[in-house]
TrEMBL record:
InterPro entries: MATE_fam, MATE_MepA-like, MATE_MepA_subfamily, MdtK-like. This is Multidrug export protein MepA. The chain crosses the membrane at residues 20-43, 49-73, 94-117, 137-154, 166-189, 195-216, 245-267, 279-303, 315-337, 357-378, 390-410, 416-435. Keywords: Antibiotic resistance, Cell membrane, Membrane, Transmembrane, Transmembrane helix, Transport. It is found in: Cell membrane. The lineage of its organism: Bacteria, Bacillati, Bacillota, Bacilli, Bacillales. It comes from the Bacteria. It is a multi-pass membrane protein. The keyword Mitochondrion does not apply. Pfam families: MatE. It comes from Lentibacillus halophilus.
Amino acid sequence: MSIAEQRLLSQSVTKSFFQYLLPTLVGMMLMSVNIVIDGIFVGNGVGSVALASVNIAVPVWSIIISISLLIGVGGGTLYSIETGARDASKAKQIFTLSMILVTIVITCIGITGYLTAKPLAFLFGANEETLAYTMDYMQILFLSAPILAWENSLSIFVRNDGGPNIAMAGLVVSALLNIVLNYWMIFILGMEVTGAALASVIATGAGLLIYTIHFFKPGSGLTFIRPQWTKTDILSIGKLGFPNFLAEAGTGVFVMGYNVALSYYAGTTGLAAFSVINYLHTFMFLAFIGIGTSIQPMISFYFGAKKYGSIKHTVTMAEITGLALGVAFLGIGYFGADYLVSIFGVETEGVRNLAMKGIKLFFTGYLFMGINFVYMTYYQSIAYIGPSIGITLFRGFILLIAALLIMPVLFGTTGIWLALPVAEGLVAIFLIVFARKGVQNRPLRSQGY
């Protein structure tokens, strides 16, 4: 019996939920540190132009992570369903196929991105002032894309195989090493933005090595076997992972949309202010992804094992956790805006004031984000992809883009900061009114995968 089977079949839902949630939440928030630390060191050690440049390059992270989530979460979900159905051979086949797909696809993307870095930089919002720094950061990320993707995908499978503590350990090591390397490369070696990018890549590689420990644990179900290239498995992996791909791709749309809107309405001051908020948002956003990542292995396993009451209990606990986290983040933003801006070394009065105002408005979106991620993950985990894709499209694309186009015309920069809260809030209200009752009361059914 695998580690995941031993845990989820013998323990209460509450105990299992916190065994997955706590290390996953800590790990995801530490994962965001790898990006936030870059901002803190770049802002204090290089300057605000370099800080804005790194922020412009953030969509590269989104591209790499979105593909690794597409395959990793899709494969991980199918892996847990097969494990719950007691088909260990099929689960191993899915794991092997997923990791090979990640390697092939990401390598092609990395090479293409490196060769087209300059036009991509302009597409992401760079100008002549920020271009050089942006390209330095982007090219290193593209060259190192397989390492970044392997780390993300393998952490998902380790978590689905009952190893959330090892997944957390890898992220802890990565975050701590990133701090040390950022200081050494930026302040000691004077490598500026290049040093920040290299620090993140090396630290991520160290986390990847930690995950390999799981292969040697008794009861580990992660084993590479001879791959079978079946169209059904490839399509199933892509279908189940597509909501996460869209969610991460939406992060790139979010960054580009805010960069374009603030550049038009507030110029370089707006871009610098948003760079601070976006680094903070990365931290908060990954916390909510952490909730979804925690319940996905549980719901998928329970679904495969036909333990439907356990699924409903899991969803309820995740809802409460998401709301509590949102209230906590809003409080931190409202009462600690001045300190949050200060840690990025922002001294220009205009940038500082705009960023503080933005934090207090922008953070209201966190009240709704937890609900949206819980239900997106719930539908995905039971192989009912349509609603999951719908939630992702509306909160991350349709409503967000509409809000960024309409609200600044009516309210100026205030409307820009409120665009994300409006998009998240509308989707969350719809889910609470129309979806929640059905989820809690209607018998679950598979839509096929």
